[in-house]
C-alpha cells in the first residue's frame, strides 16, 4: 500500500483488518493516500506500530531519469578500440567435453514439441547436431525414440561453388 509516497507491505496483517481486505486489494499498486486518509485518522500506522513495516520509498520519475542518465554516461565512457581483423574463414571451433570431441561448443536439447516448428521435429535437430558435431541430449518426452534419432541421416546441401547440377 502507498500512503504519502511511502510503500508499506500490508500482507502480514491484511486479513486481520477490521474492514476486510477487499478495500486494500482494490487499491493495490495505486496511491491509496486519498482513500486511506478519508477513513483513517492521521498517524494510525504509528499508533499501531505498523510504521516498521515500511519497506521502501516511493520512487519519483526524477531519480529514475538521473539514474538512467548516469548509466548512459558510464556506458559512453567505456572506450571501445577497434582491433585488427584476422582471417576467420578457417577457424577451429572444436572442443572437448567430458572426453567427447565436439565440432562446435554448442549443446542442444530439443523438447517434445519440436514438430510444431518443423515436420521433421527432433530428427531435424538431431541431423543438424550430427552434421556440425554438436552435443545433443534427447528429452525423455521426445516425440521420437532414441533409436529413431540415432539413425537420422545427415542431409547435406551442395554449396554454391560445388553444385553438381
UniProtKB/TrEMBL annotation:
Residues annotated as domain Cytochrome b5 heme-binding: 1-49
Keyword Oxidoreductase in annotation: yes
GO molecular function, one term: oxidoreductase activity
Residue ranges occupied by any FMN hydroxy acid dehydrogenase domain in the UniProt entry: 76-165
Signal peptide: none
InterPro entries linked: Aldolase_TIM, Cyt_B5-like_heme/steroid-bd, Cyt_B5-like_heme/steroid_sf, FMN-dep_DH, FMN_HAD
One Pfam family this sequence matches: Cyt-b5
Superkingdom per UniProt: Eukaryota
Cofactor annotation: FMN
Keywords attached to this entry: Oxidoreductase
Keyword Oxidoreductase: yes
Protein name: FMN-dependent dehydrogenase-domain-containing protein
Species assigned in the record: Aspergillus leporis
Organism lineage string: Eukaryota, Fungi, Dikarya, Ascomycota, Pezizomycotina
Amino acid at each position: 500500500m502507498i500512503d504519502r509516497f511511502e510503500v508499506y507491505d500490508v500482507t502480514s496483517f491484511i486479513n486481520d483488518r477490521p474492514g476486510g481486505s477487499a478495500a486494500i486489494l482494490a487499491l493495490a499498486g495505486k496511491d491509496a493516500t486519498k482513500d486511506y486518509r478519508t477513513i483513517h485518522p492521521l498517524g494510525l500506522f504509528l499508533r499501531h506500530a505498523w510504521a516498521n513495516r515500511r519497506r521502501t520509498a516511493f520512487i519519483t520519475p526524477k531519480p529514475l531519469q538521473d539514474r538512467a542518465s548516469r548509466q548512459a554516461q558510464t556506458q559512453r565512457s567505456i572506450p571501445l578500440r577497434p582491433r585488427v581483423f584476422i582471417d576467420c574463414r578457417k577457424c577451429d571451433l572444436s572442443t572437448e567435453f567430458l572426453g567427447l570431441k565436439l565440432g562446435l561448443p554448442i549443446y542442444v536439447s530439443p523438447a517434445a514439441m519440436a514438430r510444431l516448428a518443423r515436420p521433421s521435429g527432433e530428427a531435424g535437430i538431431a541431423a543438424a547436431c550430427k552434421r556440425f558435431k554438436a552435443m545433443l541430449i534427447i528429452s525423455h518426452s521426445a516425440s521420437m525414440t532414441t533409436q529413431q534419432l540415432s539413425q537420422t541421416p545427415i542431409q547435406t546441401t551442395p554449396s554454391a561453388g560445388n553444385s553438381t547440377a
